[in-house]
Design brief:
The chain is of the alpha/beta class. The protein has helices spanning 41-48, 119-123, 126-139, 156-167, 181-186, 200-203, 216-222, 257-268, 285-294; strands spanning 2-6, 16-19, 29-39, 61-62, 66-74, 86-90, 102-106, 110-112, 147-150, 171-176, 191-194, 207-212, 226-234, 247-250, 276-281, 300-304. It has nine helices and 16 strands. Helix 5 (181-186) links the parallel strand 10 and strand 11.
Amino acid sequence: MKALCINQYDSIYNAALLACEPAVPGPDEVLLRVVAASINPLDLKLISGRMSAIFPLKFPYILGTDVAGVVEAVGNSVQRFKPGDNLFGRMDPRRGGALADHAVVPAHHLSPIPEGLDAGLAAALPTAAGTAWQALHDIARVRTGHRVLIHAASGGVGTFAIQIAKLAGATVIATASEKNHALLKNLGADEVIDYRQEDFTRCVKDADIVLDLIGGDTLRRSWGIIRPGGILVTSIDRALTNNGAVRGAFVQLTTNAALLQNIALLVCAGKLRVITDTSYSLEQARNALEQVASGHVAGKVLVRVSPQPAGH
């Protein structure tokens, strides 16, 4: 089995494609032939050790959490799936395993890939779309009439968040570099702010929801543009607390196979678009990590590992 591995907390440049012991599913697990995986900023944090208090890793560690593939075998307690099924889902970050030609995944983390949905697009959904949905719906309770500001809106979470907020009837303001403005408006953003040229605190007032995907000074300055009773949701600062009459909340994605299935069906229905930047082979997977680390990505970066079954 080939897999992109690290042997200690370090730099992405020390990730290497290695030959590993074949993956064998446990009683409640599924063995997938990996068709595609996607890269998330979380992968970079795991490699560096910045998340070790929350997600301690056991080395050697196979990178990657978002996966799509074809079932090759199931554990003896798995009733829902069978060999030949096309599935996607999110792996436990502590365990990883998506950037490999085979992966073992708990069955309850997986959902069927709807007929006609490309496996690469399915692999793009779990972390990014799941985070956007849980931040806006489960935490912020977005609804018609809300004004929503999304920072770093051209990334994986941001491109989904724009569309999810619009589907809920919200007005969406997004921050991004000028080169991505047309894309974000096409996704439904009502206003796009060039963070390099404009101060968002001068452009936005009385936001109901701010989704912060940057942290630092951007997060600190966001409090002042939220109306009393509004909420700031961040994926960066776990210690975030309320600030006066404005609530603060940290979104930590909880794997939910039923939610992922519903999101995939929205994609199939044309109500949600998956924006992809670049696709790499498994042999080029470290280059995929490097591109995400550069910060210059519109949407999702994919790793296509093997051919998707014909007819799906």
